[in-house]
Amino acid sequence: MSASSIRPSILHLPAGPWSSVLDCLCGHFPAISRDTWLDRMARGRVLDADNQPIGPAHPYREGLRVQYYREVLTETRIPFEEAVLHVDEHLVVADKPHFLSVMPAGEYVEETLQARLTRRLGNPHLVPLHRIDRHTAGLVLFSANPQSRGAYQALFRERRIDKRYEAIAPALPELQFPLQRATRLVASEPFFRMQEGAGEANTETRIEVIERNGELWRYRLFPVTGKKHQLRVHMAALGAGICNDSFYPELLDARDAADDYSRPLKLLAQALRFVDPLCGVERSFESRLTLDW
Prior knowledge:
Pfam family, one: PseudoU_synth_2
GO molecular function: catalytic activity, acting on RNA; pseudouridine synthase activity; RNA binding
Number of domains: 2
CATH architecture of the largest domain: 2-Layer Sandwich
Organism: Aquipseudomonas guryensis
Protein name: RluA family pseudouridine synthase
């Protein structure tokens, strides 16, 4: 069994008829068996706000803060390694390989960039300041110090950080580049997909062409906003779905389909640049990964 060694998940107990925390957890998470919760409690994997173990008889109280560690019975090893590009007191910068999640989600707990870096660097305070898709490779910036975290989070919230991506996708000779794509992204079906919809734009991407190779071109993408799947949806909407994208423009594989490691998504988070909010110095980081044709 894979048990998360990083920060626990938090649940403030909802209103309900339960007499114990155990009963509430079973009711709130019907997919997790009572025996599983009993096993977690026996191993000290369910805690209160003071990091004290919660047992099966612990009385239920609405709003009680419960910490628990996600676990996966059988977790697939991702056969690609991350690279640490920078470490200091406040920041960690890593190159994430294709197929590796940034944070625990779904069937992945330990096979995530956050868990790997936490173990590798021995820092339980590591928190990603932004995310990239599991299928996207490239730079991810982590906060290493809770005291300075807010200052770096503000860079992303206030759009004071420049992000550059690279993608390989079909040629678009009928369009003039560079171009700006500004549209409204909304939820689609199935739930993990996005689509362009009517209304005021909530996403914006600048797109350039940097290399032409017959029917495929290499594009440079500058996202102004950071919505889920923004670059993938924008390129697909232009008629150039990114190579090996199984979600856009058409859904080819379910979200939980087995990974085909021979066909990585041709999308790379290539560069980050910002003025450091603590010292005022401009900082820039470049991925060491590349996309081949």
